[in-house]
Every structure is written in structure tokens, then in C-alpha cells.
Amino acid sequence: MRQFDRILAIAEAHENVFCSVGTHPHNADEELDVTCDELVRLAGHPKVVAIGEAGLDYFYDKAPREAQAQGFRTHIQAARQTGLPLVIHARNADDDMIAILEEETGKGAFPFILHCFSSGAALAQAGVKLGGYVSFSGILTFRNSQELRDIAETVPHDRLLVETDAPYLAPVPKRGKRNEPAFVAHTAHVLAETIGLSDEETADLTTENFFRLFRKVPRDAAR
Ligand SMILES: [Zn+2]
Predict the structure, then answer these.
(1) How many Å apart are CA 35 and CA 41, to the nearest integer?
(2) Fewer beta carbons below 10 Å: N end or C end of the chain?
């Protein structure tokens, strides 16, 4: 959030770059003063197409868990009000994440994406049941990620997405290199094998899913 001007400047400088607005859970305790109203106001900019990322990270625990939860709920409120997708970061926090998603969805639905999914099957199932999308990064291609591929196989096709999480998590065969957007094709290839579709069908599917969810991104600008 405190760097939002810089982020927006990058998005404004390039026709095919868009951004989200929010506070990462690592910094949740530093920005608890950011209100839902402020997020909603900033999200009114045409280049802002999502809220987040926000969520719970109990792996690094960089901010107190109560602060992460409080910030997360503020972002949920903003997603509900704007109708923009909430990009959710969840790590080692499956039970609390499921509980908050169920409780908050009960107050009113909001679009969301479980980004860089690396949690358990129960969270994937809960997310799908509550209307969410599940996005897989290069982790899906790692040799020791069979459990994750098994989860991907169970996600309904119209809720699947792929992402880079660049510069991190470059997929096989680029593993260990600095990740870049073009490498997402390798992740999509493994997803295709996993769900039994061709590469082209998977590309079409994930593209359709993206534009349905990120409804503010104009199709012609994203080519
Ligand atoms: Zn994240």
C-alpha cells in the first residue's frame, strides 16, 4: 500500500500492465490503519483490477496472526464492495483460512482467487465451494509436488488458473532461474497433462477463466 504510487506508475506506463491494491500479510501490522473505504477509492482507478494480495501466512509469521486476520477481513470487505477479485495469499494457515472464508462468505459473497496455491485439499475444496478460483504456480511442475497435482485434478475446470509469481518459483525446466511471464507456459503444460486436456485447450480455458474473474482487464489491452 505504501508503495502503491510506484506500482500504479508502472501500470500506467504500459498498456498491458495492470495492478492490484492491498497490503501483503507480511506487512499487515504496519498498515492496519488502511480502511476499506481507502481500498475501494484506490480500486476505482481503471488500472486497478483486483484487491490484495492479502491473507494469512503462518509459515513466515512476519506479522502477528491477529493483525493478518484483521487486515484480511478489511480486504474481503473491499472485494465485496467493489466486486473485484481478492487475491488471497495463504500459507500453512488452512484451518483459519477456511474458517474466515466461510464466515465472511456468509455475510455476502465476494470473488476471490487462492493465488500460488500450495495448501491442502480441504482448502482447495472449500475455496471452490465458496465460489473461488484456484491458481497454480511453477510449484505444480516440481517433481515432489504430486500431492498438488492430485489437488489440481479435482478443481472444476472453470475455476483453474495458472500464474508465475515471478520472479520466484520458476517452473521446471527453468527451475532456479529468475522467473518471467513467458515461463507460465511450462506450468500450463503440466496442468494440461494433469487434467487430461491439450495445451491449447488448457490455454483457452485458463484465459477464459482469467477474463471472467478479472473483469476490469480489457481483452484487447492484454494481448
Ligand atoms: Zn502471495
Answers:
(1) 10
(2) C
Please give the distance, rounded to the nearest whole angstrom, from the Cα atom of residue 60 to the centre of ligand 1.
12
CA of 29 to the centre of ligand 1 (A): 17
Q: Are 220 and 169 in contact (CB under 8 A)?
A: no
What CATH number should be reported for the domain holding residue 138? 3.20.20.140
pLDDT band at residue 2 using 50, 70 and 90 as cut-offs: confident
Q: What is the pLDDT of residue 222?
A: 52
- Among 99, 92, 98, 148, which residue's Cα sits nearest to residue 121? 148
Do the domain assignments include residue 223? no
State in Å: Cα 106 to ligand 1 middle: 24
116 Cα–ligand 1 center, Å: 6
Question: Which of 217, 213, 221, 219 is closest to 49 using CA atoms?
Answer: 217
The dihedrals phi and psi of 173, each to the nearest 5 degrees, come to -95, 20
| Predicted confidence (pLDDT) at residue 12 exceeds the cutoff of 90 | yes
- 156 Cα to the center of ligand 1, angstroms: 22
Q: Is residue 54 assigned to a domain?
A: yes
Specify the higher pLDDT residue, 223 or 219: 219
pTM: 0.96
